Amino acid sequence: MRERKYSQFKIGETVVYPKHGVGEITKIESMKLSNIKSKFYVVKMEQAKLIIRVPLEKQQKVGLRKISSKKKIEEVYNILKSKPKIRRIMWSRRAQEYETKIYSGDPTKIAEVIRDLLRKNSQPEQSYSERQMFQMALERLAREVAAVEKTDYFQSTEKIEIILYNK
């Protein structure tokens, strides 16, 4: 049997795993599970103190991808500057949609969640679950922005907040 070439990421490369956010490939290892030998990316998720092993043949299926381009981050900033879309549907339904967008790993979808959940001081108070969802989306986006712009998480969070509160 011919071995297929899956490896598109290098050790030390920063990647995005949609369900958990930004991580770094620390090594590529072989493991044998019930007589089947597989190769795995070992991805260290710094923010969650988590190590994830992604089988090389499943990288597309789980959505493992390179970090976004600077052009994509510019798109994200434009979404953050745009007017929020107010949806008059039940929170549980909106929460489901927001969660789907966050876990998609797509920075433009995550930016839409942040934009739509933002509450300025003049607006009514958010519920606990809205604040939690907003924070989760903000953290995800800030970590990817930090990786793309080669800054740290706090600087990228500050940059996003400046864009949000000064539109």
What does it look like?
Helices cover 46% and strands 21% of the residues. It has 167 residues and is of the alpha+beta class. It has a 5-stranded antiparallel β-sheet. Helix 5 packs across helix 6. The N and C termini lie far apart (58 Å).
Blueprint (SSEs and pairs):
Blueprint lengths: L13 E4 L3 E13 L2 E10 L4 E6 L3 H4 L2 E2 L3 H12 L9 H14 L2 H11 L10 H22 L3 H13 L2
Antiparallel strand pairs: 1-2, 1-5, 2-3, 3-4
Helix pairs in contact: 2-4, 3-4, 3-5, 4-5, 5-6
In a few lines, what is going on in this structure?
The chain is built from six helices and five strands; from the N terminus they run ββββαβααααα. It has 167 residues and is an alpha+beta fold. The mean pLDDT is 89.
Mean pLDDT: 89
Number of helices in the DSSP assignment: 6
The helix fraction, in percent, is 40-55%
Strand order of the largest sheet: 4-3-2-1-5
Low-confidence stretches: none
What CATH architecture of the largest domain do you see? Answer: Up-down Bundle
The rounded Rg comes to: 18 Å
Sheet with most strands: 5 strands, antiparallel
Number of strands: 5
Derived from helix and strand composition plus strand pairing, the structural class reads alpha+beta
CATH topology of the largest domain: Methane Monooxygenase Hydroxylase, Chain G, domain 1
CATH superfamily of the largest domain: CarD-like, C-terminal domain
Strand content: 15-25%
Number of domains: 2
Distance between the termini: 58 Å
Q: Characterize the overall form.
A: elongated
CATH class of the largest domain: Mainly Alpha
Order of helices and strands: EEEEHEHHHHH
